[in-house]
Amino acid sequence: MKKVLVFIADGTEEIEVFTPVDFFRRAGIQVDLVAVKDSKKVRLAHKVYAGADKTFDQVQGQDYDAFYIPGGLPGATNIRDNEKVIELIKEAKDQGKILAAICAGPIVLEAGGLLKDKNFTCYPGFENEISSGSFVDDLVVKDGNIFTGKGPAAAAKLSFALIEELLGKDKAEEIKAQTLFNLL
User: Fold this and answer.
1) Among residues 82, 86, 121, which one has the least CA distance to residue 104?
2) pTM beyond 0.70, yes or no
């Protein structure tokens, strides 16, 4: 079974957390919501409280196939400013694992030096905070094992791109059909 770690922090964007978690679980992917602070209780960007499955100190990077970084503020900066997160995503990249970030989340990849010579997208304006890589004005951008999404409206499209990468096109199409996404 494939396994994805989804980082969450105070200020993380709700749509960018719950949309992929829902689609991943429908596809049979195991998901762990991981708080980057000591408490499993996290206050998201729009004052919705979420309970993490684990705190950061309870995870081992080798247990995951992919790592997903949502945006939202100050969620993305809270994730970026955790040195252990940066170490973990660097190790994941070195191991060829999938890394995904959406909205302001690519600033975390930038902090780890992971966007060098990569195409990426992000929420409008955040490309100015990223000095490496090449900004592409698309909803979702895949460059090697790095996936990026523009913002909340791209959460579903990014989720399906990741499902396709992890489980194949047929599974992604199956989940699109089950959720009526294919009718949009």
Assistant:
1) 121
2) yes
